């Protein structure tokens, strides 16, 4: 069955200029024209820091034009499949989680022929394909009632997860999961999460603790610290405005029985905030030879200490988002270990209220839940 009975029009939140509110308008339901595509009825759409960066004009040339429909982490139900595809990956009625990267990956470029990353997909598709588009960035995303999705960028939602559970995992969860995988740490190793009370950070704390790592979470926000401390992960949560990184490092070294300063500290640290202070604090937490994994991308960049790289042998890697292999592993891990995002939900029409709360420092993940009464 290629589709259910579909409406001709739908509601969509449109960004019509940088630094303006979203405008809720009625627009046509998109038609499927590509054999890889499915039409998804959006059940939950999660707001990401990247949505805020894009709306501010700091990710130019994205969006390529206005009006624009944002959101690259959402979940929903398949409403139609391509009639020209005799073997569609999904059927009408399937629940799917959608990560915006990799829309129409070409399958022919060097990246698609040999996918990169810590958990690469099979040859033929890469989330990092340079010729692909990104839902919510370069083409319409999930802040609308129906969205066109490349079936290859989606995964079935496990029965134990709701759409509201799954949506924040499609960027926040998958991004911090990929960053953790890039650390290549064995159980018992020490990991830091700077920005542990944010959307990515509080998921990273849960993942890392359930992986058997010894975790130090760092934040400065009162709301973020409260969220991190309330997760029950047994991570040590540090207020960076009150405790110096050098003191944390010394305490860790004493606990580990390290005799020399170079051996004291963490094995790896994830840097999630965009501030230089966060970067410097993270570097100061590491033992010599430790790894900094950068997930944030401030417009002005980060200032790097050559001394730390040369004499302390600190290593730096960037991490963007995970592959489909990583997405499946992450979803299974969330079910097996009861990892969930802390969410605040809003009716579909109240996106601008959600954005206001985000900019005022609301903790956790903020999600439009289309099942919530208006």
From TrEMBL:
Domain Alcohol dehydrogenase-like N-terminal: 35-158
GO molecular function, one term: metal ion binding
Domain Alcohol dehydrogenase-like C-terminal: 199-334
Cellular-component GO terms for this entry: cytoplasm
Presence of keyword Protein transport: no
Cofactor: Zn(2+)
Keywords: Metal-binding, NAD, Oxidoreductase, Zinc
Membership in a protein family: Belongs to the zinc-containing alcohol dehydrogenase family.
Name assigned to this protein: Chaperonin 10-like protein
Species of origin: Lineolata rhizophorae
